[in-house]
Design a protein that fits this description.
By secondary structure, the protein is an alpha/beta fold. Among the domains are: 103 residues, Succinate dehydrogenase/fumarate reductase flavoprotein, catalytic domain (Flavocytochrome C3, Chain A, domain 1, Alpha-Beta Complex), CATH 3.90.700.10; 104 residues, Fumarate reductase/succinate dehydrogenase flavoprotein-like, C-terminal domain (Methane Monooxygenase Hydroxylase, Chain G, domain 1, Up-down Bundle). It is built from 14 helices and 18 strands. The strands form four sheets. Strands 1, 2, 6, 7, 8, 9 and 16 form a seven-stranded mixed sheet that branches. A four-stranded mixed sheet has the order 17-15-10-18, covered by helices on one side. β8 and β9 form a beta hairpin. The longest helix is centred in the last third of the chain and has 22 residues.
């Protein structure tokens, strides 16, 4: 079914997609795809806040320097400076829309809203809405989107692939509705805001993580991907094997939380002079080492010394959620474990969100902007969403009409691959990635992962040409190829840097490290 022509099509309804829609719609009509299940996406679950230079005691150069240090030599300094410089105006824009950031009760404070500090930051620069910033921002933006007459919000469709033409341009997206009926949404300009690839791993900080679908949809049209090996594991996810994942914000450590081993001994001061406020890659590896040493499935995060009043004031959402899971964090330490959290790489983009495919853009976690380098610094992600979505919107507001060219042919099959089989194969993929391509990678493990993923591909690929399209099948196929590209990128990086740690090559490599860049054609099997 051809659903007509759309001027600007945005796929993904998290913060990046919502911001972009609002900033474009005054000039061009927008269609925004936000499937119902996206309500559980990463943006809504972001707790800590947004990093920006807002205090008179802070400055742009300090934020830039902190980000470069956290990125471990692999950041694009131009992208870092661009993002940081956009921060104050982006926050002012959110305030103008009514985002309920937490005020600072101190009448002598230099900034009217409370600023906290998180790992890697040398100053208090994290503006937040209690400990549920993502939810507050998403809900505010969503209200404005729903009220805008030039934005058509579609919650009934899920994109499974992009439409290309013989001139190499992106011309929209192929989608499925709840009944499995195929819809073609043709567009002058298409923007991916589909999130990252934490869903390639078994333990994540989101209940319904993306599996890199947007990255691979772009790669199918020839887009370049970068830095896939740098997958961030948040150091502190609630350890509860029988319950859903729940993130324990970095702000908990920013406000004085201490990490303890299973015997109750603090261990981070022995690892790094910044202790609990070291960058996430350092903290996650330290926790992983403690777990390997003790044989236990978690360590402890202790904030009892802050007192119940302060805990309830700063962390009402975390306190209430943990209480619902049987843990009173005011009187007992929190069991925590690292979990896949954020993809530092993605689709290579310019500072305006343009990919290497004409008429295709990417913003948010799906994009590889160069901001994060080898390790994302806490709360820079929502800042990136704001800065790049607004920059992309400025370009799209003045884009010329697309040149017409014949569309690339595509045909669906008739054989069904069940949802249960797709989920079972995805679970196999996640086991391989979690065991061999997680916080610590070794050459032998990467080789084994490559073999296992190639075997999964061999089992699935011959059946695809005649398969009925489904959301589950598309997600599995995207995830499988992205996992293989991730393993290839990790194998090729003969050093340890940031989030990529390999004991078989434990030192930094070249003095001038390079971003890794891959294409779908680098795989020996691809769907045509």
């Amino acid at each position: 079914m051809n659903d007509g022509k759309h001027e600007v099509l945005i796929i993904g309804g998290g913060i990046a997609g919502l911001v972009l829609a609002l900033e474009v719609a005054d000039r061009r009509p927008v269609t925004l795809l936000q499937p119902a299940r996206d309500g559980l996406g990463a943006s809504r679950w972001a707790q800590g806040g947004i990093a920006a230079v807002l205090s008179p005691d802070d400055d742009i150069e300090a934020h830039v320097a902190d980000t470069l240090i956290a990125g471990d030599g692999l950041c694009d300094e131009a992208a870092v400076r661009f993002t940081v410089e956009q921060g104050p105006a982006a926050i002012a824009w959110l305030l103008s829309l009514g985002v309920p950031f937490t005020p600072d009760p101190d009448p002598n404070a230099g900034y009217p809203y409370h600023l906290t500090r998180e790992g890697g930051h040398g100053a208090r620069r994290i503006i937040h809405a209690d400990d549920a910033t993502g939810r507050a921002v998403v809900e505010t933006l969503r209200r404005h989107v729903e009220a805008h007459p030039a934005i058509r919000l579609r919650t009934d469709l899920t994109a499974i692939g992009l439409i290309g033409d013989r001139a190499g341009q992106c011309r929209g997206a192929r989608c499925l509705d709840a009944a499995g009926q195929l819809h073609e949404l043709r567009a002058d300009d298409t923007v991916l805001a589909t999130g990252g690839a934490s869903g390639l791993f078994r333990h994540t900080t989101s209940p319904n993580p993306a599996c890199g679908e947007g990255m691979m949809m772009a790669a199918e049209l020839g887009a370049e991907l970068m830095n896939l090996e740098f997958q961030q594991f948040h150091p502190t996810c609630l350890f509860d094997p029988d319950g859903p994942p729940f993130l324990i914000s970095e702000a908990v450590r920013g406000e004085g939380g201490l990490l303890l081993d299973v015997e109750g001994r603090r261990f981070m001061p022995d690892v790094d002079s910044r202790a609990e406020l070291a960058p996430r890659d350092v903290v996650a590896r330290a926790i992983d080492a403690q777990m390997q040493r003790s044989g236990q499935g978690h360590v402890w995060l202790d904030i009892r010394h802050l007192g119940e009043a302060a805990i309830r004031h700063h962390f009402p959402t975390i306190h209430a959620h943990c209480l619902s899971r049987g843990i009173d964090i005011a009187s007992a330490p929190i069991p925590v474990v690292p979990a896949a959290h954020y993809s530092c790489g993605g689709i290579s983009t310019s500072l305006e969100g343009a990919t290497t495919v004409p008429r295709l853009y990417a913003v948010g976690e799906v994009a590889g902007t160069g901001l994060h380098g080898a390790n994302r610094m806490a709360s820079n992600s929502l800042l990136e969403c704001l800065a790049f979505a607004r920059s992309c919107a400025r370009r799209l507001r003045h884009a010329r009409p697309a040149n017409e060219a014949p569309l690339t042919p595509w045909q669906a099959g008739s054989a069904r691959i069940s949802e249960e089989e797709c989920l079972a194969l995805l679970a196999e993929l996640r086991e391989v990635m979690s065991a061999r391509v997680a916080i610590v990678r070794r050459d032998s493990g990467l080789d084994e992962a490559a073999r296992c993923l190639a075997e999964l591909t061999d089992r699935l690929a011959p059946r695809l040409a005649d398969a009925v399209p489904s959301v589950e099948l598309a997600s599995l196929w995207h995830a499988l190829r992205l996992a293989r590209l991730t393993v290839a990128s990790a194998t090729a990086r003969r050093e340890s840097r940031g989030l990529h740690f390999n004991p078989d090559c434990p030192l930094h490599g070249d003095a001038a490290p390079q971003a890794s860049r891959v294409h779908l054609s680098d795989l020996d099997t691809e769907r045509t």
